[in-house]
Specification:
CATH superfamily of the largest domain in chain A: Dihydrodipicolinate Reductase, domain 2
Oligomer: homotetramer
Largest interface: C-D, 47 and 47 residues
Strand content of chain A: 15-25%
CATH class of the largest domain in chain A: Alpha Beta
Strand order of the largest sheet of chain A: 3-2-1-4-5-7-6
Number of domains of chain A: 2
Number of strands of chain A: 14
Helix content of chain A: 25-40%
Chain lengths: 348, 348, 348, 348
Amino acid sequence: MENKKIKAGVVGATGYAGAELCRILCGHPGAELTAISSVSFEGQKLSDVYPAYFKMCDLVCETQEAVVERCDVIFAALPHGLSQELAAQCQTAGKAFIDLGADFRLEDEDVYREWYAGEFLDKGLHQKAVYGLPEFFREQIRGKRLIANPGCYTTAVPLALAPALEAGLADTQGIVADCKSGVTGAGRKTTQNTHYPELNEGFTAYKVAAHRHTPEMEQTLSRLSGTDIRLTFVPHLLPVNRGILATCYARLKPGATLAQLREAYRSRYDGEFFVRLLPEGRVADIRNVRYSNFCDLSLHVDERTGTLVAVSAIDNMVKGAAGQAVQNMNLAFGLDEAAGLKLFPPAF
Amino acid sequence: MENKKIKAGVVGATGYAGAELCRILCGHPGAELTAISSVSFEGQKLSDVYPAYFKMCDLVCETQEAVVERCDVIFAALPHGLSQELAAQCQTAGKAFIDLGADFRLEDEDVYREWYAGEFLDKGLHQKAVYGLPEFFREQIRGKRLIANPGCYTTAVPLALAPALEAGLADTQGIVADCKSGVTGAGRKTTQNTHYPELNEGFTAYKVAAHRHTPEMEQTLSRLSGTDIRLTFVPHLLPVNRGILATCYARLKPGATLAQLREAYRSRYDGEFFVRLLPEGRVADIRNVRYSNFCDLSLHVDERTGTLVAVSAIDNMVKGAAGQAVQNMNLAFGLDEAAGLKLFPPAF
Amino acid sequence: MENKKIKAGVVGATGYAGAELCRILCGHPGAELTAISSVSFEGQKLSDVYPAYFKMCDLVCETQEAVVERCDVIFAALPHGLSQELAAQCQTAGKAFIDLGADFRLEDEDVYREWYAGEFLDKGLHQKAVYGLPEFFREQIRGKRLIANPGCYTTAVPLALAPALEAGLADTQGIVADCKSGVTGAGRKTTQNTHYPELNEGFTAYKVAAHRHTPEMEQTLSRLSGTDIRLTFVPHLLPVNRGILATCYARLKPGATLAQLREAYRSRYDGEFFVRLLPEGRVADIRNVRYSNFCDLSLHVDERTGTLVAVSAIDNMVKGAAGQAVQNMNLAFGLDEAAGLKLFPPAF
Amino acid sequence: MENKKIKAGVVGATGYAGAELCRILCGHPGAELTAISSVSFEGQKLSDVYPAYFKMCDLVCETQEAVVERCDVIFAALPHGLSQELAAQCQTAGKAFIDLGADFRLEDEDVYREWYAGEFLDKGLHQKAVYGLPEFFREQIRGKRLIANPGCYTTAVPLALAPALEAGLADTQGIVADCKSGVTGAGRKTTQNTHYPELNEGFTAYKVAAHRHTPEMEQTLSRLSGTDIRLTFVPHLLPVNRGILATCYARLKPGATLAQLREAYRSRYDGEFFVRLLPEGRVADIRNVRYSNFCDLSLHVDERTGTLVAVSAIDNMVKGAAGQAVQNMNLAFGLDEAAGLKLFPPAF
């Protein structure tokens, strides 16, 4: 069997998303974590960087080239801007490439230029790229070899709002996405505002109405609703390690009811293993999805103001990054979409 | 001098708001914490309930009657519904009464009945009550003897939104108040969802668009803006002890600019010691106001959608409860409004 | 295959240890979680009590009797004192019984009486019971049908100290075990001192030199060292959900060196998958074993005072409870000892 | 009055200890925070570095020279090794100097050389220095102009153990100090192990039996007990901002009882405002001393092993650093020793 397994590699394995990918891939029945790379820790074991991995994943960090050469699929967890060249190398080498960065997420180069101050180095390559949000674009992902894995906020917000917009139950104007993220979303690099004593017992917003995920979630919602959507997105930093809670507000169309909304979401997500539409009365909570690939979803209506409040919760490192990337690999290689991803969230 | 000090008493001293009141009053130069009461801990020292208070406040909990009899001003930190009778006793006894509960906050009995399922036992008494949000209703508070202290959310949200609405820079329709509160706001009573392992590393919304503070903040904003305001209010529970961050969204009137907004807020809060309008580029953070009576305020504009994002941060136990109550006492008794309240927030 | 799986049941499934057992058993390749019971939640789904389990474990809580009847092995996660009767029922029914409580841990009834104020209801049953700490008593556990699963502290401390005592490198007198536990160790029942605001940012010791685990760890170390050991054990409560760090102090025998100690531990734990003896220079940390069945171990020598400092870290819910119970099931039923227990600890 | 106030200055004001000093000095009735310095933030306001201080302490960071010139007393919160020269400058300028670093704490240059790899640049200066632990060395501190402020652990451990040793109730051999510190003790500089996601939910020991505070606490205990004491000291890092809990173990002398111990501690600390000897049955907890200058102390006896367990709790930033420094200033300048230090610890 072993030789039938997909050979998976991770470039940028020592960052948080990369390390989480390694953890998930080590438990995948149809894939084998074959090679990893890290610029900062080349030659060191992953378990030297993360002692939690001792005896579970003691692979040594090699070069990008070694990873591309020895693997069937290459996951990249790199800072924005570093993936385009690697993607080209993978294409040349005939290897599948799944990018956890932002380089291939935006279809419009002008938008990319505006928000990332970067260029599309190879427009043909960008045309080949598919946006990897399986619950919405599953068919386009199947069999593909260049997949742009969505960001964390850009997974949580569209999953919370799309069905209402697709069903025409909510207004496409005046949408607000108030999101709260755990600290792992800020990455492994130390900063003053993620220094324990300066984050603990604190809570604030950042990049108010100026976060790069804004155009990405607008792109997804516009595609799905068929109208040009602009929304107000404000991220906040939570003093927890993992999880994103997206509290999304949209004005209801006249006459729209909670029952209609629930039915629209139920039918939209019918059969989606990773989306858990909560029973009425429950509210999505990040603690229930930690370490899992689930997106919990709760729907609420403010009848006094005619407003839909859709709340989604994901683990930013799993459904918001590494887990969704593996879900995309499963689709790209024709495996069971949930293979290696039936991660049981602990209750505490 | 001692005999010139105001004799202050706290009914419900062993709850969080009551205990915080005791702590603040013990440091007040013009008041003396004279008597405290607690139904659950009558006969015990406050420092037996809160060992942190050992040698700083070892008063013994007595009866309500004892407090009313021996004090000039009685603060009540009781569950909703229990203050009306006590207020009447205080009036009869000619004592000032400052209620940290909700019994006297709402002017319209129908609204009170709808949200609290209660009655106004003595309508005359309610007419005498003044709403104690000093930054907005200072003149009405001076010299009064029956003051309804605002709730925590209902302090944070109006302070964030009022100047924009008063200046006609924001639309009174479609306002969203997405608020996040520390756990002390839930009180001292143990519950499953505040049991450490079930809250730690978690984050969720509660009472979505159904929280009792909704009509109270609408009442304040309607009074100040002169129009009937209804907004969508969603509270969330933060895994921190103290603090409320209110992220408030309002559509800007055409042409309204950040400069105009900043000017409106600057002039509105000019001379307000407890409101800190942050310089452009800063964002309000609960960690900067902990243990203080400050309200930090930051203003942001989403020009892509024409939305004002006003963020306020307070300590829910201080400016959101006990501190504001003392601020009201200072006004009622003609003391320096900041007496005993120049609490220096620690940086960590 | 399905019918070949061991039918496993959990009595007391809605407590923390019981819920963790369910989570682990759901991922066990050789066992099937067949029935669960709960007195408090009979008739409700486990996922109603723990929404994190939604779609992963929606079993309904039944009666103890139903669990005993339908399962091959019954795990009990009950308050102390309630297991003896259940154990008798299981024996009568010919079912295997693994007790996570303390009823069968102590061999000496006098000691049990002194620390638990209880009796051995059926001495014969107690003689049949085996103490389930596999790394030390593996051979006695194989094939057994009545297993007393050790406590959390009583797993962490002996694993840290036994090899030094067995090898005669440390003095059996004057041992100190200073232990720190996450809050889940206190169970699901709400208490004032586990109420979030009263535990968060706090840290204290409890049951100083008076904890019931004292005689249990003494029993294990005495058995292994062949001498009667009494030690000083002080537990502390950490503001984290999971994990126990045991910092153990023992006077070194004259001439004993760190090299000798490391060799003794290396040979003692050679081949033990769940014990990770850390390289020199590393220190055991609870964050590296969370959600896993590992026990991390680091050895340190204070040459100035001739003292061994042995530090062990476990997840109190896994190696300290549910994981070890499954490890015992695997031994009792002749499965691979690590089956279902190769749980990969997350790095963050 | 203003002109009668002591002009106080802080060198290294933007570090945690320095910032805490500024906060405390701003509330001191007999001192005025006159000038502060910072190498990293010269020219910036302290409130730009710590927005919590906005409107409370907006002093601009100047040079060391400016601080020495304009102040009567200079507090130094600098990395070890940088204080000796500054102390000399202060002596020349006739200014009082209180050093929060380690340069003047150790009397024996050989010990200093061994643990700090440094030299005594001016032996005469070191002879003038007094060790500033007021509860033990009050009389030597009065009127002095060069004071070495103790470290945090070295305040907590001697306060917990000294009375038992002075009274001859405990053995001076085989003492263990198992200490746990909040993260602020590690300072403001960002490091990987204080990066929020890598400390949160974790707990470990560090510098096991190798921490520089070891010889300092031995020096104090040896001076007080009149015998040469060596102990085993193991510090741990707690996932909280503030506080040190010291769990200290010492073998009791034959016949020594808890009653004798309590009497020894009671008489030793009789009249010490900042030491709170807890009633029997209570255990010291860091949450009860946060933001205060108190040291809480609880005594426990393990009669089974003849061991004293003395537990002390302090705020590492206050009694363990800035608060004690101000206490020393009060003594040096003949003010009420508690002036500006009756800081009321919040209960939550």
